[in-house]
Specification:
The protein is an alpha/beta fold. It has two domains: 2-111, Double Stranded RNA Binding Domain (2-Layer Sandwich); 134-177, SHC Adaptor Protein (2-Layer Sandwich), CATH 3.30.505. It has four helices and eight strands; from the N terminus they run βαβββααβαβββ. It has helices at 14-24, 72-89, 91-101, 137-147, and strands at residues 2-8, 38-46, 49-57, 62-69, 134-135, 151-156, 162-167, 173-177. Strands 1-2-3-4 form a four-stranded mixed beta sheet, with helices on one face. A four-stranded mixed beta sheet has the order 5-6-7-8. A hairpin with a 5-residue loop joins β7 (162-167) and β8 (173-177). α1 (14-24) runs parallel beside α2 (72-89).
């Protein structure tokens, strides 16, 4: 696995780089053709807190995890644990999709243990049809806040595209636009 590590407001030392590479090595057993996979690691510092963000783009999925701790090494450990848990938790669903579509999803299924509490109970329990109204991003934020939701779908009157606005962890907003 090729690992790209970059720091924001922080210089990445050899020890930090080696630690991240060693820990990410744990994930290689879950991935087929791991030598063709690239992992992007961003280390951010804000006050005494260090945030580790790991993104691993695969052919059909993106594995991503982020963790903030006061200790760099603890943050790396928690982030890797989250990624590993994501793969293990979704093994059954991934295998099922792999079987139905005959597509290779970059996972080595023999190496993934199923989580003990996984019963494949996550399913779609509600569907909702909405009228996507044209509005500006500001109007969409106001509507989302009035509804008390974390996201809101709307037709952006500036771009004429269906968009989703969402509340980020840092209390700012993000927009996802369709193509």
């Amino acid at each position: 696995m090729e690992i790209k590590i970059r720091g924001e407001k922080l210089k990445i030392t050899k020890a930090m780089s080696d630690y991240v590479e060693e820990k990410l090595g744990k994930l290689e057993k879950y991935l087929e053709n791991s030598n063709e996979i690239h992992a992007n690691v961003i280390v951010k510092v804000k006050g005494h807190q260090e945030t580790i963000e790991i993104t691993i783009p695969l052919k059909s999925f993106i594995l991503r995890s982020e963790e903030t701790q006061e200790d760099f090494y603890a943050a790396v450990d928690k982030t890797i644990d989250k990624l590993e848990r994501q793969v293990r938790k979704n093994k059954t669903r991934l295998m099922s999709m792999n079987k139905h579509t005959k597509q290779n999803y970059d996972f080595n299924f023999e190496s993934i243990e199923i989580e003990k509490d996984e019963k494949n109970t996550n399913k779609v329990v509600k569907r909702k049809n909405i009228e996507v109204k044209p509005m500006s991003e500001e109007e969409a934020i106001l509507q989302m806040e009035l509804l008390g939701h974390q996201f809101f779908m709307f037709k952006n009157s500036d771009t004429d595209k269906v968009s989703v606005i969402y509340k980020r962890k840092d209390d700012n907003y993000g927009v996802i636009e369709s193509e």
